[in-house]
Amino acid sequence: MDARKFVIGNVGPIGCIPYQKTINRLKENECVDLPNKLALQYNGRLKDLLAEMNDNMPDAVFVHANVYDLVMELISNYAKYGFTTSSRACCGNGGQFAGIVPCGPTSSMCGDRSKHVFWDPYHPSEAANVIIAKQLLDGDTKYISPMNLRQLRKH
Q1: Handedness of CA 25, 29, 32, 35 (dihedral sign)
Q2: Taking the mean position of all CA atoms in its chain, how far away is CA 132?
Q3: What pTM does this model have?
Q4: How many Cα atoms sit within 13 Å of 104 on the Cβ side?
Q5: Contact assessment for residue 103 and residue 120, using Cβ atoms and an 8 Å cutoff
Q6: Does the N-terminal peptide bond of residue 58 adopt cis geometry, omega within 30 degrees of 0?
Q7: Can you provide one Gene Ontology molecular function annotated for this UniProt record (predicted)?
Q8: Are 114 and 9 in contact (CB under 8 A)?
Q9: d(Cα 88, Cα 37) in Å, to the nearest integer?
Q10: Average pLDDT rounded to a whole number, residues 76-105
Q11: What residues have CB less than 8 Å from 125, skipping those under 6 apart?
Q12: pLDDT over 90 for what percent of the chain?
């Protein structure tokens, strides 16, 4: 189909989502080790595969979006970005971090969704996604490589 430009995101820190923190009864600053280790193992192989594909297909560009480190940065340093929590879901029910029951008509809602890293027990909030998108659009190779999205468009 003549596609030549691809952006592939890796797996985020799934051991740090409100669902995992709630079902494992963790403290606010803790994450579940095994899911994160598995994600990092997969992510390492993905990055190697994309580098290999870039070497073997010179007419195509495969860009690696480092979602894991981006989301982990927001979780670890949430206050720096204006969030009040990186553990509690804005919309959800059950447990310390509203992480058991997904967001629905009977869910509790936070007062200000722009202050939460996570919208529901599984997904980043709109405010978090804006920060992630800006990094992917104009960020350096720590979060997107071998080039950012703006550079890819011009490539």
Answers
A1: positive
A2: 8
A3: 0.93
A4: 7
A5: yes
A6: no
A7: hydrolase activity, acting on ester bonds
A8: no
A9: 22
A10: 95
A11: 90, 113, 114, 116, 117, 118, 119
A12: 97
DSSP code at position 96 = T
The CA distance from 139 to 36, in Å, is 24
Indicate the pLDDT class of residue 71, thresholds 50, 70 and 90: very high
> What residue type is 35 in one-letter code?
P
The owner of tokens 């350096």 is 140
* Tokens 């297909």 found at: 57
DSSP letter, residue 80: G
pLDDT at 97: 95
Of 110, 124, 122, nearest in space to 21 by CA: 122
Tell me the two tokens of residue 138. 């104009």
Residue 123 carries which side chain, given as an amino acid letter? H
